[in-house]
Write a structure and sequence with these properties.
The protein is of the alpha/beta class. The protein is about 40% helix and about 25% strand. The chain contains eleven helices and ten strands. The strands form two sheets. The chain has a six-stranded mixed β-sheet, sandwiched between helices. A four-stranded antiparallel β-sheet has the order 2-1-4-5, covered by helices on one side. Helix 4 packs across helix 5, helix 5 packs across helix 6 and helix 10 packs antiparallel against helix 11. The termini are far apart. The model has no long low-confidence stretch (mean pLDDT about 90). The structure holds adenosine-5'-triphosphate (ATP). The site of adenosine-5'-triphosphate has 13 residues, from strand 2 and helix 1. It comes from Amycolatopsis pigmentata. One of its GO terms (molecular function) is ATP binding. Keywords: ATP-binding, Nucleotide-binding, Transport. This is ABC transporter ATP-binding protein.
Length: about 280
């Protein structure tokens, strides 16, 4: 791992809505991601996971805090500066809905080569790279001529992953990459992400499902009601969860639950959390 983290988030605050009805969606969030690391951000629906991701990539403006990506302080960057950062391929964000990452009027080939063409790479080389990344996400070249609307949900998710990776970014943020997939596709995409991790890509993997994150993440960050209540090495967070909400998550994940953890304990934790 290099000395410089690929991502440093400190004291990030995000509010939504008009002043008199403001919702504090992200509270003083701080997180560091080392180069080549995978961090899993988990939390229930509405806990602020997408807000954290969107604030990191400049799609939502924080009211306080700082974001540094690959040594570049992007806090307060304007749209033009964000576009330039994305064009340089530093960071990629994969939307929860793959259709949002793909232009419906572009063939898969055009979608995959576009990020390379804007970097000044010649089309022939861009197409070669697009094919290589399509095969990395285990899709057939035959799909290159199709439009996103002519693919299955699982294929679309893989194409949007390939599109995020083709420009070889420093950091990829994946918002719920497997939650809309059936179990065979989920296992397939998790396998691909494991290969990417072995290849040294830094990933932030957002999910409401601790079970999906557990086998992949080096570190786990737990969001609860807009606050990062616990962050640590994945094995430690799972083996010795410090926060009551994390204990409830571990206890509720069928594949992680220890034999001793039972329903009574889950109910006690729910009562403690007031949920
Ligand atoms: N554009 C918006 N305007 C107003 N409130 C918003 C907006 N986006 C999100 N929120 C609210 O902010 C809170 C956090 O939302 P966010 O989408 O970050 O949660 P999440 O953890 O990603 O949820 P999910 O797992 O359902 O995607 C929620 O209460 C949500 O209703």
């Amino acid at each position: 791992m290099s000395a410089q983290p690929v991502l440093r988030v400190s004291g990030l605050d995000v509010y939504y809505g008009p002043r008199h009805r403001r919702r504090h969606a992200l509270r003083d969030a701080s997180l560091t991601l080392g180069s080549g690391e995978v961090v899993g951000v988990i939390g229930e629906t509405g806990s602020g996971k997408s807000t954290l991701a969107r604030a990191i990539v400049g799609l939502v403006r924080p009211t306080a805090g700082r974001v540094v990506i690959d040594g570049e302080d992007v806090t307060g960057y304007r749209n033009r500066q964000w576009r330039s950062l994305r064009r340089r391929g530093v960071v990629q964000y994969v939307f929860q809905d793959p259709l949002r990452s793909l232009d419906p009027d572009l063939t898969i080939e055009d979608s995959l080569v576009e990020p390379l063409l804007v970097q000044g790479i010649f089309r022939a080389e861009a197409v070669t790279r697009a094919r290589a990344y399509l095969s990395r996400v285990r899709l057939d070249e035959e799909l290159l001529r199709r439009l996103p609307g002519e693919l299955s949900g699982g294929q679309r998710q893989r194409v949007s992953l390939a599109r995020a990776l083709v420009a070889e970014p420093k950091l990829v943020i994946l918002d719920e990459p497997v939650s809309a997939l059936d179990s065979a596709n989920r296992v397939g995409v998790l396998e691909i992400l494991k290969e990417l991790r072995a290849g040294g890509v830094s990933l932030m993997f957002i999910s409401h499902d601790l079970g999906s994150v557990a086998g992949l993440a080096d570190r786990i960050a737990v969001l609860y009601q807009g606050a990062l209540v616990e962050t640590g090495p994945a094995e430690e967070v799972i083996a010795r969860p410090a926060h009551a909400y994390t204990r409830l998550l571990v206890n509720s994940a069928p594949t992680l639950r220890s034999a001793s953890a039972g329903r009574a304990e889950r109910e006690a934790l729910r009562a403690l959390l007031g949920t």
